[in-house]
Amino acid sequence: MKTIIDRRAFLGSGTLLAGCAATTPRLGSSRADGFVRRESMRLMVGDEPYRFVGANLWYAAYLGADAPYGDRARLRRELDALAAVGVTNLRILASAEEGPLRNSIKPGFRTAGADYNQTLLAGLDFALAEMAKRGMRAVLYLTNFWEWSGGMMTYLSYVNGGRYLDMNDPAHPWPAFANFNSQFYGNAQAVALYRDWIRTVVTRTNGMTGRPYAQDPTIMAWQLANEPRPSGDEAHAKLPEFYAWVEGSAGFIKSLDPNHLVSTGSEGLKGALERADIVLAEHAPAAIDYLTVHIWPNNWGWVQQKDLASTAARGEALTDEYIAQHVTLARQLNKPMVIEEFGYPRDGGSNDPAVATTYKDRFYRRIHAATLASMQAGGPIAGTNFWAWNGEARAAHPDYKFREGDRQYMGDPPHEPQGWYGIFTGDSTVRLVADHARAIARLPR
């Protein structure tokens, strides 16, 4: 998920969630004993198509850590809640680079040296082990274009004498941050540090299960980064360096682990300077297994969160068009497609879980309808991961801002209002996710 400048007490008794538990199939539970593979435009496990309803749960390793900032009991409860509504795939942060940027989560998985945070890595072990018990699969992203987990800007600061830009710095307005970040792809020192981290995680053995990550079918895919962009504008795009980074990084992962899929983490056209040729080139390498798509109507100006009544229809039409454009691109690539981020505000742009989700639910129905139609027609869409699961968490402060030291992790990351886009336990949106899971489960195998 990106920053706002660019895209970027339970409710009642929890009856809504409880009502889903007994009726929603766990789509992945009977098929979690084999690796997911690509077969033309389909994802497969064994001789069956792999279709999924998923969520983003970036903070899973943090909850899984045996540390003051962790909460393993809550992680178990959140996984149970997600499984109860048919969620079988989670997209999880598997790297955070600790450094000077404002609004980046702490602690990180790593700093500039090789003394990595073993407690947080063990938290990732725990999360994967608990997911396996519930028949879930993981997509693990290995750095971030954006600042909220350190990311590429922090890697650059490690090797350039400490120079960096903060996102939303008034002295360096958009697209300065994204243009600065574009230096990462051609910086041999920064990319070498990134590859050191890849090697550490991809070749890791899970301390909870004793199973090497490379041999664990709980992992569906490795992802190069969260929302990598070639630059913020055309003038700063060094496309050969960007393409070389994609192909080289994906090939490096495959050399360490030939069992798992690899994806880019791209938003699609919005993360590719609105150019279809960049999307195609970025996803063309043989080591990239599927096309990723993110959809953010509010952050992209398709809707106005304070006036959803008047703007929602326009946003829905643009959403339909965006999905259709990427289905066409996926067909050109002859690869599957996953809508792995999509988010929408509550009514009036509120962050309060007591406020309704009328227009958000309409948006989810559009995504679900397009996904189901593609699956029914043998098209490329294999699954979705909504952004994001807030679950039982509640904002710690009345201004909905995240402060360093807060432990009520939500799907809304530290740089964003807490409650902005995530789904809380008890939201009506939960029922839509459960209904979508049931609809997918009824499709012919």
From TrEMBL:
Domain Glycoside hydrolase family: 35-443
UniProt enzyme class: hydrolase
Xref: InterPro entries: GH (IPR017853), Glyco_hydro_5 (IPR001547), MAN-like (IPR045053), TAT_signal (IPR006311)
Keyword Ribonucleoprotein belongs to the record: no
Presence of keyword Hydrolase: yes
EC number: 3.2.1.78
Superkingdom, natural source: Bacteria
Keywords linked to the UniProt accession: Glycosidase, Hydrolase
Catalytic reaction list: Random hydrolysis of (1->4)-beta-D-mannosidic linkages in mannans, galactomannans and glucomannans
GO molecular function terms listed in the Swiss-Prot or TrEMBL record: mannan endo-1,4-beta-mannosidase activity
This protein's name: mannan endo-1,4-beta-mannosidase
UniProt lineage: Bacteria, Pseudomonadati, Pseudomonadota, Alphaproteobacteria, Sphingomonadales
